[in-house]
Design a protein that fits this description.
Layout lengths: L1 H32 L13 H11 L1 H4 L20 H10 L13 H12 L3
The chain binds heme C.
Length: 120
């Protein structure tokens, strides 16, 4: 009897794992495609990591304190763009803003989008 209960529990756990895998997969694909309906995963803001990326990649155009230069002021960008819009702008670029998807990893772009969206 005990054996059957254990077997039942194990297969329930296995099914659950498959279910989790299947439901997680589409989200990841959509993020890397940068398609229309995607969402940037929830993260803690990592200001230190973001500022380091910013210093190396962004301030040359957006100014030392991101207060604007060749590119616009980003110090309150979180109140006008969503995290998804920020991610997309960084990843794909827009107008004079270069695309960073070949220069930053997906993880770094999430770090940037999360941090910028907290600047309000
Ligand atoms: C080569 C110069 C340049 C670099 C480097 C650059 N940007 Fe930009 N960025 C621009 C310009 C120019 C725009 C305005 C784009 C437009 O709408 O025409 C812009 C726009 C943006 C916007 C949208 C602002 C708005 O008001 O809609 C965001 C967000 C942004 N940049 C983030 C970044 C981040 C993050 C980095 C570093 C990873 C970065 N940029 C690096 C030039 C640059």
């Amino acid at each position: 009897m005990y054996k059957w209960i254990m077997a039942g529990l194990m297969s329930a756990a296995a099914l659950f794992a498959v279910f989790i895998l299947l439901t997680q997969m589409p989200e990841k694909e959509e993020v890397s495609e940068g398609g229309a309906a995607f969402s940037v995963p929830e993260r803690e803001v990592d200001a230190a990591a973001a500022q380091l990326i910013s210093k190396n990649m962004c301030i040359s155009c957006h100014g030392t304190d991101l207060k604007g230069g060749i590119g616009p002021d980003l110090t309150k960008i979180g109140s006008s763009l969503t995290k998804e819009q920020l991610y997309k702008t960084i990843s794909e670029g827009r107008g004079g803003m270069p695309a960073f998807k070949d220069r930053l990893t997906e993880d770094e772009m999430i770090t940037m989008a999360t941090w910028l969206s907290s600047l309000k």
